[in-house]
Each structure stands twice: as structure tokens, then as C-alpha cells.
Specification:
377 residues; alpha+beta; 60s Ribosomal Protein L30, Chain: A; Phosphoribosyl-aminoimidazole Synthetase, Chain A, domain 2; 2 domains; six-stranded mixed sheet; 12 helices; 13 strands; 22% strand; globular
């Protein structure tokens, strides 16, 4: 992570305009780097060359370990979940969401995450806030096995309000060419395994905020309507970090036969699962195999949102999907259970009606807890 570098050390009159008075505090950026150093060092892998503060992050790749290596990369952000973090003035978990968005896209093709580089743009560098954000990024890197090799903090005083910030990251991974996962491996009668999410993860927050905070008038300190006594506040639910599946998926590929993964983000379960289904096949999932999370159900009822719209906006309780042959089901479920990941058989791969026509993925049945619950209000 590198702070904004100063320009030439030209002399400035004592009463003249400085970079700091114009809105960019180089000293604050340097303090932020000092505060994040320990968190970044915890993510270090043996392949990392050099330390914090260089112009580029260096990673020495030992090609003797691979027969035909393919590099994979992914770039993403967190989106408007940041509005919740900023409203609550809590910034130590948003970095976990950021890492999840990039490393779990890498692992879909079977790639091991190697390193992450981040970018933080803000209206004003508050070193402690930057340190919290990077602490979350480092925590996400530790959860995924990736090194945090560098990044940039940019202070955009003329473009952003002082407390505003946005984050993005790029992750790079590696996979053997002959073990790449994807639609080419998926076969008729394969089984679809669902892995439980921890919440909304990092998608659908525009709709969630519109319904919960604007339409329904809830406060972030409020529990959900009809929630049990002692239930967490809405803000805590919305800020729950994204589950990172990278190491769990790699554990599956190293112990059992996996044909494909699908990371369930924007576009929902059917939309993302359809990206790894061959043109002649279809994934059919049974909603009766799991419950719609209370947060999603509440958003649907408060906003009178049709189920198809909910399902293409939110992950609806499933954050990652694995497609495996029948013979691998028991072993895969055992691995995920041992690793503390909720997982279950959610459906199968069937022939697609009309060959290449029709949807690549569809959901059938009803969630046990959705149609039976009365509208709120």
C-alpha cells in the first residue's frame, strides 16, 4: 500500500498555498502507511519480494512447480455497501468484502489466489480510517491465502466529500491449464451443491437501502420488524462480511472431482450459475432445499418485490455453487462440513429443453418460509 507521493520539493512561501491547504495531506498519507504496515506484513507469502512502499508489488513465481501455468486475474469493488460502513462509521470489515469479490471469482476457474493489490480513493485521508480499511483487506487476504503486495491511497479533495471513499482491488491467481474448471467439464446428471452465504455479501445494496431505509423508514440501529428479542441491529446485518470461499473451493478440488464453481454475485443464483452451464444442459435447483434468509424475505415483503426480482438481485442464501459428479457428492459435503461451510444438494444438471433454447439455470418449488409469511404493516 503506497500513499500519494509528493511532487518536486519546490520552496513555498510561508503564507502561500500548500498541497495540504488545497486538500491533499501528504503527511497524513505517510501516517496511514505506518499504521497499515503490521497488517500488510501478516499477509506475506514466501514469494513476495521486498516490502511496503515500493512503486510496484513484487511476487517471485516459481515456475518449476507448474507444468503449464495459466494466470488468472479479477478486478472488482464493493459497491454501495460502502454507504452502510460510512453511515455507521465502521470500516474494519469492508476490506473483507473487497477481497472476497476478487478471490472468489478467481477460484471459480480453479485458480489459487496469489496476491492482491488495492486502491482506496477518499475525500480526505484519515490515517486511522485507512488503517481500518486495510486491516479488513489484510484479514480477507489471510482468509484466502493471498498476499497483499501493494496498492494506492488517493486523496481526491475536489471530487469527494471528506468522509467519502471508494475501494477497488485486483487479485492474481494461478491454475494448471489442464485443471481449468468451467462449462466444458459439466456433464448430464451432475449434482449442484450450494454453499451458504453469510448475508447479502456485496450485492443488491441499492435495492436493500431503498426498501429498508427510505421506503420503510427503518434506522440502522433498529432490528428487523418482527425480529426476536435480542436480534442484531439492521446495520450489523447489512455490514456482515462476505464469506470467502477460496480455500474451501481449493480444498474441494484437491480432494475430490469438481467440474465447475459459480460465485453468486450480481445477477443472482440463476444468472451466475448459468455462466458455467453448457449450451445443451440446464441446472435445475429446488428452492425447498433451503430457507430464504430473513433479511431477504423482509426486503421482499416490505418492498412488495416479486420473487424473480429478489432472486436476480440477491444471493438468497447461496454464495457459491459447486457442480460435481454423483460419486463426489458425499466427499465434497464432508470436506465442506469439516471446514464449517454450510452445504447441501440443491439440484441437478439436466438436458436443456429444446437443446440450446431455454434458460441455462432455473429454480423450482417454493421456499418453505417465504409464501407463508404475511406482509408487514
Amino acid at each position: 500500500m503506497t500513499a500519494v507521493s509528493p511532487g518536486p520539493a519546490d520552496a513555498v512561501p510561508s503564507k502561500g498555498i500548500s498541497y495540504a491547504s488545497a486538500g491533499v495531506d501528504i503527511d497524513a498519507g505517510e501516517r496511514a502507511v505506518t499504521l497499515i504496515r503490521a497488517a500488510v506484513d501478516k499477509t506475506r507469502r514466501p514469494e513476495v519480494v521486498g516490502g511496503l512502499g515500493g512503486f510496484a508489488g513484487l511476487f517471485e513465481l516459481d515456475l518449476t512447480r507448474y507444468r503449464r501455468p495459466v494466470l488468472a486475474s479479477s478486478t472488482d469493488g464493493v459497491g454501495t455497501k460502502l454507504a452502510i460502513a460510512q453511515a455507521m462509521d465502521r470500516h474494519d470489515t469492508i476490506g473483507i468484502d473487497l477481497v472476497a469479490m476478487v478471490v472468489d471469482d478467481l477460484v471459480v476457474c480453479g485458480a489459487e489466489p496469489l496476491f492482491v493489490s488495492d486502491y482506496i480513493a477518499c475525500g480526505q485521508v484519515v490515517p486511522e480510517r485507512i488503517a481500518d480499511i486495510v486491516a479488513g483487506i489484510a484479514a480477507g487476504c489471510l482468509q484466502s491465502g493471498a498476499a497483499l503486495v501493494g496498492g494506492e491511497t488517493a486523496e481526491h479533495a475536489d471530487l469527494m466529500r471528506p468522509d467519502d471513499y471508494d475501494v477497488a482491488a485486483t487479485a492474481v491467481g494461478i491454475v494448471e491449464a489442464d485443471t481449468l474448471l468451467g462449462p466444458e467439464r459439466v456433464r448430464l446428471d451432475d449434482v449442484v451443491l450450494a454453499m451458504g452465504s453469510t448475508g447479502l455479501h456485496s450485492n443488491g445494496y441499492v435495492l436493500a437501502r431503498r426498501v429498508l431505509l427510505q421506503h420503510a423508514g427503518l434506522q440502522l440501529a433498529d432490528p428487523l420488524p418482527d425480529a426476536d428479542r435480542g436480534a442484531p441491529a439492521l446495520g450489523e446485518l447489512l455490514l456482515t462480511p462476505t464469506r470467502i470461499y477460496a480455500l474451501d473451493c481449493l480444498a474441494l478440488t484437491s480432494t475430490t472431482d469438481v467440474h465447475a464453481f459459480a460465485h453468486i454475485t450480481g445477477g443472482g443464483l440463476a444468472g451466475n450459475l448459468g455462466r458455467v452451464i453448457p449450451a445443451t444442459l440446464q441446472a435445475v435447483l429446488d428452492r425447498r432445499t433451503w430457507e430464504l434468509p430473513e433479511l431477504v424475505s423482509t426486503i421482499g415483503r416490505l418492498g412488495q418485490i416479486a420473487l424473480p426480482e429478489l432472486e436476480r438481485t440477491f444471493n438468497c442464501g447461496v454464495g457459491m455453487v459447486a457442480i460435481v459428479p454423483e460419486g463426489s457428492v458425499a466427499g465434497a459435503l464432508a470436506v465442506l462440513t469439516d471446514r464449517g461451510v454450510p452445504a447441501w444438494v440443491a439440484g441437478r444438471i439436466t438436458e436443456r429443453p429444446g437443446a440450446a433454447a431455454g434458460s441455462a439455470a432455473r429454480l423450482t418449488g417454493d421456499y418453505a418460509d417465504f409464501p407463508k409469511r404475511a406482509p408487514i404493516g
